[in-house]
Every structure is written in structure tokens, then in C-alpha cells.
Design goal:
By secondary structure, the chain is an alpha/beta fold. The protein is built from 21 helices and 13 strands. A hairpin with a 2-residue loop joins strand 1 and strand 2. The structure holds adenosine-5'-diphosphate and zinc ion. Adenosine-5'-diphosphate binds next to helix 7, helix 12 and helix 14.
Length: about 600
Amino acid sequence: MKKKNSGFGSNGGPRNLLIAVAIGLACLLVVTKLHHDIRSKSEKSFSQFLAAVDAGQVKQVEVDGPVAQWRAADDQVYQTITATDPQMWERLQQKGVEITFKDGSTKMGSWQILLIIMFVCGLAFVWYMFRQGKSAGGSGGSNIFTMGKSRAKMFLPSEIKEKFTSVAGASEAKEELLDVVDFLRTPEKYERLGAKITRGVLLVGEPGNGKTLLARAVAGEANCPFFSISGSDFIEVFVGVGASRVRDLFAQARKAAPCIVFIDEIDAVGRSRGSGMGGGGNDEREQTLNQLLTEMDGFETSKDPVIVLAATNRADVLDKALLRPGRFDRRVEVPYPDLISREEILKVHAKNVKISDTVDMKKIARGTPGFSGADLANLINEAAILASKENKAKVTLEDFEEARDKVLIGKELRTIVLSEDERKMTAYHEAGHALVRLLLPENSDPLHKVTIVPRGRALGVTHSLPEREKYSTTKEEMLASIQSALGGRVAEELEFGKLATGAYSDFKVATSIARNMVCHYGMSADLGPIVYTQHGEFEHSEHTAQRIDNEVRRIIDESYQKAKELLVNNRVMLTVLAQALLEKETMYASEIYELLGITPREDFKLV
Ligand code: ADP
Ligand code: ZN
């Protein structure tokens, strides 16, 4: 979603703000200067004044309250704050000084001037902001009077055309969101048994993969209003504005309930507190975040639900408080589409375009790994433009070919685009992880799915599902985890005979498990059942540090050898699996079992 509103915070906002600040600063300067001029009119201390009087240097004194302005023998005028005791007047009289008293109310003191100037400046500022608001044309643009109003856009059910059928692929995400739709449609059904349904769902995925689209489709399916705002729209320079915008948004949403509130880029407000953003915006962000949490906690569990869908591609930076039960306790992944999804997305967007029969969408899907839904929509559009330029009757394969290059160039600047070699390497890498896991069945978590569709900075992912909620893990299980983590690198090494950087995060996983085994769980014969920490309670000696390092090294080395042994002995399977992955991109456990002829492992069931 793109931001729509203009006004104080967005279009031209920063420039206007700068002008306002400049005016303010100029006023301040003038005021301080004037004030200083008045105050510093050759200020003399009371003692200096008295000394001058005694020396007969003072000709004339004009007294205004505590301030005395006096003319010295050399006709210079000085100013002194005096004590007004009667003795002083006598002293002055004795020296023949001429004394006049001024009525303090007629002459303005410097502080009065200051006040007036400040008032004028304030007026100017308010007038300026007011004009600012008017020129924004009332299209939700904010000025000083409406700054606290939420800038959410509201869509009525009749305005929302999207349904789940508009979202191609993304079957897992849709399945998870079906619950939300059902709940919005018939809250009574859940209320009857006292079931509490999630009020916040986090949609996690790279831009362009359809998070906004999915959120709108949920509203479309549930036939309810849809409020849409971006996390960055909450934040203003003024502390407290974000919080009041949140309050306003939820007040509106409650009135329209049941409804959906969609917050794009939630990380703009939801970054974990104290996480290196630094700078002044923090207070404001924290207040806004707190208000959001308060609003979500305050949802009534009963009818008229408000469900908040929030989108981000940085779930890792979110504040833990956001993810607690009752808040965003559900997470739906919206990954890059795989081969089949890409074909479906292409078909959805090709519906309104005249395309030649010779164009095979399957082939185009195959040629666009790593494209997001938005990239694919863009591809179709670019191809149509190219064909139109040449006055063709229909869009041809050549147009797609050319359009793909165009989109790719734009894309390479933003995300990872894998070359064929890299894809191959990734396929072997992931196959390595998966196969080691499959070959160590008793001790490793069952495989769930393997994919070589890039996600974020990861080129591919091998997912496993824990069989049961684990409260303890055995040494063998931990070793199996290390081995399967190393399996990726081992497979690359076997197949290509060279080392690549893609295994960094695998090594981190392996190292951290091995260290924990040695330092926390007493699983090393050499170091025994003792807890070692680098700092604090169980600090250890330098000598021990050396032994820990050796022990970790030994565990990793042995695991690497073990993984290598497994893959060398099952080289054929590795090749078969990697080739299949190259072909299909995403494979579920059942397909892999079938492909490799391995007896499927029973999934953990409740009944
Ligand atoms: P995000 O919010 O994740 O950045 P959007 O929902 O804004 O992505 O998607 C941008 C556009 O990409 C959509 O408007 C749609 O045209 C297209 N698109 C993305 N994913 C899909 C999909 N699964 N099916 C159909 N179109 C999609
Ligand atoms: Zn890996």
C-alpha cells in the first residue's frame, strides 16, 4: 500500500516544518537580543553605585521600582538594581543628587516586551499552521487542530472488491486467515462456548507478496469495513500525537465493528524498545506503541470484534510485548510465491489482458523464480505496454521476454535474484539439510517442507515441525540438529567442491547448540556437569575457556564428519532430491518420502 495523505508529516511536510522552526528561531533571536540590550544598558552593581554616589560622581537618579537609572558626572547613563531603604535617599540628598521617581506602570519593563513579542510570534505560528491545514484541502491533511486525528482510510464493504479468489497461491496464509473470516462473520458461534479468538494477526513477508491484498480479502470475505493505515503515519515530531492517533483510530473502528484494522509497516511503531534506533523519535514511538497495546488489551471479547492485521517484513525487530497472547499472537507467513503460485498469480493478472495463445504461463512462471506477486503483476503490465506500443493485436512471448528483463533490472536493486548456478547450489544445500534429517529419524524433528524460494536474506529454507512440545532435549537430538544444520554445507562441498557463504546462519545454529551442550547442559565428558558462563555467577577461568573452545570444536568436527558420512553413503538420494527441488522449488515432506522411497514418519496426533 502506498501512502495517500499529504499534510504536515508527509508531502512537503518536512519543508513546511523547517520554515516554521526557522520563524520560531528568528523570533527567539530577536527577543533575546532586545532583552539583552535592555538588561545590559551599562549595568553597574549596587556597590559601584554607592561608591559613585560617595565620590560625588552621580548627578541624577531616576527610580523606577527597584531599578535606578543614574547619570554619572561624565553624562553616561548606568542602571542598577537598588535597595529602597530610606537611608539611601538621605545619602543621595547629602550628595546633592537630583532624584526623580517614575510611575512603574507607564514604562514597559523588558519582561513585558518579551511577553508581547512571544505572544505575536505564537499568533503568527498558529495562523501559519491554520493556513497550512487549509491548503491541505481538508483531505485528511493534518494541521495543529487535527493532528491527533487518525489518518486511517476507511473502506466500506461495498468498496472492497477483493475476495480470497483474488489472491492466487498463498494457500497456507489463506487457510490460517479463514478462522478470522469465520469469526468476523459469526462471532456468536465462538462466544457461545467462550472461545477467545485472536485479535491480532501478524502478516510477515517481503514487500509485494500480497500482505495488503490478503488483509483486504479478509475484509471482503467477511463483508466488513476495512481501516487501513501505515505504521509510519502515526509518528509525528510532536510527542503524544501518535498515541492520540491510535486512540482515535480505534474509537472509529469500535464504532464500525465488526471490522478490520490493517496496519502496514508495523515495525515503524513496533520496534523493540531501546533497540538501537537512537535519537529523539523514541519517546514518541514508545508512547504510540504503548497506546496500541492498551487499545488491543482493551478489546472486549464479546460481539462486535475489531481484528487487527499488521504487516511487516521485519518480524525480528518487533517488541516482544506486541507478540504476547491477546495481542499479535498469530503469525501468518506470506512468502515469495513458488512455481505453482507464480503461475496462478500470472493467470489472475492476465485475465484482463489480451494474450496470445502461444504464451504458456507455466513457462513464464518457471522463468521468474524469486519474483513477488507485485513483480508478476508488473511483468504482465509491462508486457502489455510493450505490445501496445507496437500496435500488436495480442501480447506475445517476446513481449514477456523483454518485460522480464525490465522487471529483473528493477528487482535486482532491491532483492536477491538467483542465478541458475546459485539456484543449483541452494537446491543441493537444502537437500543436504533435509536428507541428514531424514537419515537420522529417531533423533531429529520430522521434516515439514523444503523450499528454494528465497525469503528475506535466506536463499532457501528447510522447515521441520517439532513432534511434540519439547520440555527437554536429549544429547542425541542436539547432535542430530547440529548435523542437519551442517548438512547444507556438506552437500555443497560434495557436489561442487567449493565453499560458499550461504551457510553462515547454519554455522551459527550449530555453534550455539554445541556451546550450550558444553556450557549449560553438562553434555561434555571433559568439562562435566558444570555450568560455565562468560560473565556473572559461574564465570570461568581462561584455562577453562580454552577447554570449552576445544570441546565445541570437537563436537562440531565430529558432527561434520557424521553428516558427510551420511550424505556420501546416500549420494544418489541427495542428487534425486536436489533435482526435484530445482524442478518444484517447494516440496512437502510427503512428496519427499515418496520420491526417496522412505517410510513416512507418523505425524504427531492428538487422537
Ligand atoms: P504487500 O502488502 O505484501 O507489500 P501488496 O498486497 O500490496 O503487497 O501486493 C501488491 C500487488 O501485488 C497486489 O496489489 C497484487 O496486484 C499483486 N499480488 C501480490 N500477491 C498476489 C497474489 N498472491 N495474487 C495476486 N496478486 C498478487
Ligand atoms: Zn542452510
